[in-house]
Amino acid sequence: DAKTTQPPSMDCAEGRAANLPCNHSTISGNEYVYWYRQIHSQGPQYIIHGLKNNETNEMASLIITEDRKSSTLILPHATLRDTAVYYCIVSPDTGRRALTFGSGTRLQVQP
Amino acid sequence: EAGVVQSPRYKIIEKKQPVAFWCNPISGHNTLYWYLQNLGQGPELLIRYENEEAVDDSQLPKDRFSAERLKGVDSTLKIQPAELGDSAVYLCASSLGGGRTYEQYFGPGTRLTVT
């Protein structure tokens, strides 16, 4: 799987948009970009995924650059409950493959 | 719908003792994963099952770790004997499997402390 690079930590004010970047310059054509998050003392939770088009669901939006070498996860109105470690993962389209987690970005939402 | 269930949530044992962790995946999920998470790091795969078959156990330290998934549902991960370095969180996850499923669902994990 392609390697990803994320900033180790970020802060965001409550109610503001949180924009979490991820670099994946070696991504292959068949690899998707996945985002998971892990709230303290819980297991990771799936957020969103995409191939090349921008995606939006009830939790977040995913913006993938045209060359697919980077992406941004957007939490439109961050709340204190969004404080977590966010992992950007690149992997082929399959549900039978283990996720390769990096160190992620620790997002701290400030009141 | 119930999520992935793991037990116990916490376990403290002395080194050289055995320990076992149990996982009940989401109903109907054919693929089951055990991950290890050390403090401050992301989870790492230990073993992956497709139904009852272990299809990827290359990262499982087989000298002391063993796992089973009888009848392709529940799974047990065992360590015998435990070492100090085994202190970590052990996460179980499941997914529908197949060619076009994306989400893995994780349990809350078992936090193991070896003293």
Structure description:
The complex is a heterodimer of chains A (about 110) and B (about 120). With about 110 residues, chain A is mainly β. Chain A contains no helices and 9 strands. Chain A has strands spanning about 10-15, 20-25, 30-40, 45-50, 55, 60-65, 70-75, 85-90, 105-110. In chain A, strand 5 (about 55) and strand 6 form a beta hairpin. Chain A is globular and about 40 Å long. The termini of chain A are far apart. The model of chain A has no long low-confidence stretch (mean pLDDT about 95). Chain B is mainly β and about 120 residues long. Helix content of chain B is about 0%, strand content about 50%. Chain B is built from no helices and 11 strands. Chain B has strands at about 5, 10-15, 20-25, 30-35, 45-50, 55, 65-70, 75-80, 90-95, 105, 110-115. In chain B, strands 2, 4, 5, 6, 9, 10 and 11 form a 7-stranded mixed beta sheet that branches. Chain B is globular, with a radius of gyration of 13 Å. The model of chain B has no long low-confidence stretch (mean pLDDT about 95). The interface of A and B includes residues 41, 44, 46 and 101 of A.
Uncertain regions of chain A: pLDDT < 50 for 5+ in a row?
none
Could you list the spans of chain B in which at least 5 consecutive residues all have pLDDT below 50?
A: none
The end-to-end span of chain A amounts to 37 Å
Number of helices of chain B: 0
Radius of gyration of chain B: 13 Å
Oligomer: heterodimer
Structural class of chain B: mainly beta
Shape of chain A: globular
How helical, in percent, are the residues of chain B?
A: under 10%
* Main interface: chain pair and counts: A-B, 21 and 31 residues
Report strand % of chain B: over 45%
- Gyration radius of chain A, in Å: 13 Å
SSE arrangement of chain A, N to C: EEEEEEEEE
